[in-house]
Records
---
Amino acid sequence: MIEIRPAQPADRTAVHRVTEAAFGDEGPRVVELLAALDASERTQLSLVAEADGAVVGHVQLNRSWLDARESLVDVLVLSPLSVDPAHQRQGIGGQLIEAAVATASEEGAPAVFLEGAPGYYARHGFERASDRGFTRPSVRIPEAAFRVAVLEAHEEWMTGALVYCDAFWAQDCVGLRDPVLAELEQSLG
Ligand SMILES: CC(C)(COP(=O)(O)OP(=O)(O)OC[C@H]1O[C@@H](n2cnc3c(N)ncnc32)[C@H](O)[C@@H]1OP(=O)(O)O)[C@@H](O)C(=O)NCCC(=O)NCCS
């Protein structure tokens, strides 16, 4: 039985452990991103998935901006998302995404952005953001990977470029870099 609940301060070590295990070689860098987001107080929501009393998954929503013509708009970025390898492919990642987006919607956020595998996130309601007129914060994010869930509070004028909060840049966690980027672009055709 999986329970999705808000993360507590006491969960921090377990969240770092799950993140490190899920991301493999990239794990330490993603844990540093979590610490930087914590320190900059940009996290709006942090949820954990618990199975038999143990944390086995985590997702986070962080405050960033949309640079619209009229004004800056507060939007959310979903990152990172992690499920412990021993618990993957049981729907936990999907439950975490859906719970996070439902909370964002209830709290009146106009949109949740992310970068990630197009097919996986399309299943959970994330469209190609460029199809909705949004601009990537970096050309190093393949267009197909730049995704958005547009929520009820979104208004027509809220369009423009996504601006990540500082922690993503400080940790160099925006988009991909070569040679990984070049390889992915080649595989996407
Ligand atoms: C991505 C992740 C959170 C999915 O968690 P999960 O609990 O296994 O997800 P679900 O059970 O809801 O969905 C599993 C399905 O998604 C697919 N999937 C998982 N990662 C995928 C990816 N990167 N690209 C495409 N499909 C993917 C799986 O193949 C599986 O599909 P199938 O059962 O039809 O074969 C997990 O694999 C993970 O922690 N990965 C490492 C960290 C990561 O990449 N995070 C996302 C960064 S954007």
Note: The longest strand covers residues 54-67.
---
Amino acid sequence: MGGTTGAFDFDAVVVGAGAVGLTCGYALARRGLSVVVVEQEHAIGQGVSSRNSEVVHGGLYYPTGSLRARLCVQGRRMLYPFLASHGVAYDRCGKLVVATEEAEVPRLEAIERQALVNEVEGIAPLSAAQAHAMEPELRAVMALISPESGVMDSHGYMLALRGEIEDRGGAVVVDTPFAGAEALAGGGFRVRTGGADPADLTCRLLVTAPGLGAQAVAGRIEGFPVALIPKAHFGKGVYFVFHGRAPFSRLVYPPPIPGALGVHYRRDLGGQARFGPDLEYVDHEDYSVDPARVVGFESYIRKFWPGLPPNALSPDYAGIRPKIHGPGEPQPDFRIDGPQVHGLEGLVTLFGIESPGLTSSLAIGEEVAGLLGA
Ligand SMILES: Cc1cc2nc3c(=O)[nH]c(=O)nc-3n(C[C@H](O)[C@H](O)[C@H](O)COP(=O)(O)OP(=O)(O)OC[C@H]3O[C@@H](n4cnc5c(N)ncnc54)[C@H](O)[C@@H]3O)c2cc1C
């Protein structure tokens, strides 16, 4: 590691090289600061950022005034130009939110109103006939179209972010777990890293973006108020893959379920049709996919795609949402806590960065830099 500025080894240390840690590093490096991002795994992007739907969300659903509403829309507006200018693959294919029975129509109307408040571009209601004309295999009594929604290559994105940090003289170091930090008397932090080559380094600013490790990392920052560490919950979601010709060209989402957007359809960048994720609370990181869940998936999918052939879905992969709410509890906002929350100058801690964290990531980076006065 290198990059001395003034009294500190680095201006900023960022913990975690997922999409969010990398965008934080990028935002700080763009401001001319020397940055090191420390990652415990052998490679970047092995955490939540590698096990999601890779959907660029429009920003329709999130409550007025929430960070998720603001950062999703801002992040998406920043994301497409970033992907385009860095040669990262994406497909702004659009999305249909569908009501498959009359009882769901009021929910779609509420989503439309929220999307308009959130200033999501191009949202429009579609009749059953209009939706059918766009996607002939779709069954819906009504739909909403979100033309700005799409899919992206999240690994290509993270590699581009890493390149941006390194081009500005920053470093992204793998096999380097954050082991602890203490505030220094005159400001800044001493950070301890573990692994095969433990080290101590000093920095003026510290950002923690460790995904599922958020609680453990915050607990290792001396003086961090324990009462501000939210309880961790693991919200597992599994996917099934369909091996035939992809039935729809757009994303297809039924209305959200409590705590998640629910099982949806996407055609990935390779043309493969995938369905998921569902939501199941688990007590440890378990990425197995129970083949028996296919029964529930099939009946759910047939509500909007009656043509799903029998025995056509195979277990795909699983992801785990870094939730900070338990089953039945209302879904809280992203927690992006600066000094005014926890009282430690120069520190921002992130908790509960679940969906739409990937879409929001560039805006989260800007938000974090702003909280640090960088
Ligand atoms: C099933 C599922 C579907 C989703 N779908 C979408 C979607 O379609 N669109 C969307 O916008 N969002 C989606 N999300 C949300 C999105 O994936 C996350 O919000 C985002 O990837 C979080 O990124 P992150 O950098 O915070 O976390 P991560 O990618 O998990 O990165 C954290 C990193 O920190 C590292 N780390 C942890 N502890 C330490 C330590 N002590 N020292 C050093 N490193 C450490 C980890 O190894 C990891 O690499 C989905 C999430 C899930 C689970």
Note: The longest helix spans residues 67-85.
